[in-house]
Design goal:
This protein is mostly helical. It is globular, with a radius of gyration of 21 Å. Helices cover about 75% and strands about 0% of the residues. The protein has one domain (about 10-440): Amino acid/polyamine transporter I (Up-down Bundle). The protein has helices spanning about 10-25, 25-30, 30-40, 45-70, 75-85, 85-115, 125-145, 145-175, 195-210, 225-260, 265-275, 280-300, 305-310, 330-345, 350-355, 360-380, 395-410, 415-425, 425-440.
Length: about 450
């Protein structure tokens, strides 16, 4: 029934592992080589980019921690935008997430999983698409049947992939000889504008690798003792990610040396191959498959709650606001999200759409942080069991970083930026359509 609330079944450990599991997809296995190249091959600046990217994400997590503790309802960022800036900006975020960002991310992960399955089974192009759709269906079924069960799956799959990353990094650090290479440059003799510009470009890839911590906000409505649990979970999860990513980068450097990492676009596979042998390719493929499954499950636990909240507001299909009478999940929201992701995966159109729109997400993430300023003014008496430390500098630094990322995309890739913003603005007439239906009392 639409009026039945979602059960609060997610604890601190569940939410921490949702944060970690949703963030760690394939980025840490692929991005480090590009970051080192853009840092002119200097190890210190490259690791600094990873650290700064993590700290920026942590600033965002601290900011969203206040918002989630103050208003712990399903929908997270959508709810904060609606409260601070009104229904239209909130709807445009939900529209873009459903159309491309959330569904496109799930489609990307599913198609990537089929490419790694080819390490174990021969798959034709059609077979690859079938495998991608099947993975999405399995994840959806788990999430329809039980939020508690899907969270348990998330806990186990995230635990496995974190353990695999830590073991891999430890073995690389122990057995690698990369740090003994002559001529390895840690820091530049002098800092130049070109180097800073390259580090800025590298930051884009790093922030993509950290992408996903904000998805935990969507599940605040299913968190036990949310005023205490939610801010602790999102901050601890993001802090743990920084440590995991830095450790993995050091492991890659130990295995391949700075030169080897800088030349690699498949750094994890090549690092393990260099230390263990070429037969280790399947080990990395298996680890990445678990990582992809966990990230897809994390997306499916969280993002349908946005569309559930939109439907509750009468701004999306009303059926998506229903909670399944037996399973207690937003089953139709999960199914609708997954079906659209399947369409994108099967058609192959998601890659270009996602490329155009993913930077727009940072406009909404920056607006989300700005909600702290607006809501402190609009709702000064609201209970805030967690207040962002370092206010106002903490949210302001995150907003500036998000703005810089968006501005860099607009300046360097104006066509891509224009198309992405155009896709978002297509939601404006859709918003007025849904609002008029609501005003006429149509379901």
């Amino acid at each position: 029934m639409p009026d039945r609330p979602l059960a609060r079944v997610l604890g601190l450990r569940d939410l921490i592992l949702i944060v970690i599991g949703t963030v760690i997809g394939s980025g840490i296995f692929l991005v480090p080589g590009g970051v080192l190249r853009q840092s002119d091959g200097f190890v210190g600046p490259a690791l600094t980019v990873w650290l700064v990217g993590g700290v920026l994400s942590l600033l965002g997590a601290l900011t969203y921690g206040e918002l989630g503790a103050m208003d712990p309802r399903a929908g997270g960022l959508y709810v904060y935008l609606r409260s601070a800036f009104g229904e239209l900006p909130a709807f445009l975020y939900g529209w873009t997430s459903f159309l491309v960002i959330g569904s496109g991310s799930a489609a990307t992960l599913a198609v990537a999983s089929s490419s790694y399955l080819r390490q174990f089974f021969p798959l034709s192009p059609v077979g690859g698409k079938v495998a991608a759709i099947l993975m999405l269906a399995i994840v959806a079924a788990i999430n329809v049947l039980s939020t508690r069960r899907s969270s348990d799956v998330q806990n186990w799959s995230t635990g496995i992939k974190v353990a695999a990353l830590l073991v891999m990094s430890t073995v690389l650090l122990w057995a690698g000889r990369g740090f003994s290479e002559p001529g390895t440059a840690i820091w530049p003799e002098r800092w130049t504008g070109t180097l800073f510009s390259g580090m800025g470009l590298g930051m884009i890839g790093v922030l993509w690798a950290y992408e996903g911590w904000q998805y935990a906000t969507f599940s605040a409505g299913e968190t036990t003792n949310p005023q205490r649990t939610f801010p602790r979970a999102i901050v601890l999860g993001t802090a743990i990610l920084i440590g995991i990513y830095l450790f993995a980068n050091i492991g890659y450097l130990a295995a391949l040396g700075a030169g080897g990492v800088a030349q690699s676009d498949r750094v994890a596979a090549e690092a393990v191959g260099a230390v263990i042998g070429p037969g280790a390719a399947r080990l990395i493929a298996a680890a990445i498959l678990v990582s992809i499954f966990s990230a897809t499950n994390g997306l499916t636990i969280t993002s349908p709650r946005v569309y559930y909240a939109m439907a509750q507001d009468g701004l999306f299909f009303k059926k998506l606001a229903e909670v399944h009478p037996r399973f207690g999940t937003p089953a139709l929201a999960v199914i609708a999200t997954t079906v659209w992701a399947m369409v994108l995966a099967a058609s192959g159109t998601f890659e270009q759409l996602l490329t155009y729109v993913v930077f727009v997400g940072w406009i909404f993430y920056g607006l989300g942080a700005a909600c702290v300023f607006v809501l402190r003014r609009k709702q000064p008496a609201a209970e805030r069991p967690f207040r962002v430390p370092g206010y106002p500098l903490t949210p302001l630094a995150f907003i500036v970083a998000a703005g810089a990322l968006v501005a860099n995309t607009i300046a360097t890739q104006p066509v891509r930026a224009a198309v992405g913003i155009g896709i978002v603005l297509l939601g404006v007439p859709v918003f007025f359509f849904w609002r008029s239906r609501r005003e006429r009392g149509k379901p």
